[in-house]
Amino acid sequence: MAKIDGGYMFISSFYTALLSFGVDPIASMRYTAIFCIPLFLAVLDLIDDEDQLLFGLSTQAWTFILVTFIGTSAYGMLE
Amino acid sequence: MKIISLLLAAAASYPVKGIPYHPSSTHAFISKKSSKDTLLKLRGGDLGPISSDALAKTFGVLAIGDAVAGTVAPIEAWDKFGIKVEPKSKGEHYLGHGIGSSASSLAVTSLLALTGMTSKEEAIGYGLLTRCAYMTEMLLTNKYKELGVPTTPHITIYLILLAAAFGLVSNSDYVGLAKVVSIVLAGHGGLLFLNPRIDGKY
């Protein structure tokens, strides 16, 4: 569970670091979004009871949805 | 008739206003710049009607959700995802307080910077202040001691974060300190992510 805390601390501070180095806010979020993928995968690893997952979807389905969502969003943030 | 056809031919080869025209060519052409722009557009950009700005703001809004869930009701929120967290455990701290702190900081910084309500420097400052609020709560409740964090490093980082935050919010040139602080925090977070071994347990 400390892994999730560390991952979130990383993406939050990574965004701040990019901004402080003068990167555009949208471009910063693009790079930060990409790092959300390993964080979400780590969250899925923690699931004890797959039957209780939101909307009754399996972990594989959630992995596909989240990776697609983040990947598409990061692509959309390219300029 | 011949005159008309000659005029049409001249008009066809004459440079039209707004369209680049190469001096050695009789035809308008697409400049290298606009061709490059088209190619770059193929590599990404807005998703149909959704602008890149709106997509970036979406991530800021999602972070607000994480911040509220992690701060107000972490156990109930994680239960929705089939993750059991024991009350008063270290897990509750990491998945509640820890995520609440980072998510709030990310939400505040990104939304302020993306909406342009403040300068980028001020956005960073307010984001650090948000993190400091969570650290203040940890100090006041002595929660950091329960987690095995030594007092001196915790207070030192807390004071440096406060100094950087107030400096940035008051428009002083504290960007250098913000760079150092954010790299240290990102490094700490990255190491915790890669090797989350706490007291010999994951």
Provide an overview of this structure:
The complex is a heterodimer of chains A (79) and B (202). With 79 residues, chain A is mainly α. Chain A has 3 helices and no strands. Chain A is flat and about 45 Å long. Chain A starts with a helix and ends with a helix. Chain B is an all-alpha fold and 202 residues long. Chain B has 2 domains: 1-30, no CATH class; 52-194, no CATH class. Helices cover 70% and strands 0% of the residues of chain B. Chain B has helices at 2-13, 32-42, 52-72, 74-79, 90-115, 120-141, 143-146, 151-169, 175-194. The longest helix of chain B has 26 residues, at 90-115.
Layout of SSEs?
The complex is a heterodimer of chains A (79) and B (202).
Chain A: H1 2-20, H2 25-45, H3 59-76
Helix pairs in contact in A: 1-2, 2-3
Chain B: H1 2-13, H2 32-42, H3 52-72, H4 74-79, H5 90-115, H6 120-141, H7 143-146, H8 151-169, H9 175-194
Fill in the keyword field for this structure:
heterodimer, A: 79 residues, mainly alpha, B: 202 residues, 2 domains, 0% strand
State the oligomer: heterodimer
Please, how many domains of chain B?
A: 2
**Total DSSP E strands of chain B:** 0
Question: Which descriptor suits the 3D outline of chain A?
Answer: flat
Number of domains of chain A: 1
Largest sheet of chain B: none
Derived structural class of chain B: mainly alpha
Give me a quick take on this structure.
The complex is a heterodimer of chains A (79) and B (202). The longest helix of chain A has 21 residues. Chain A has one domain.
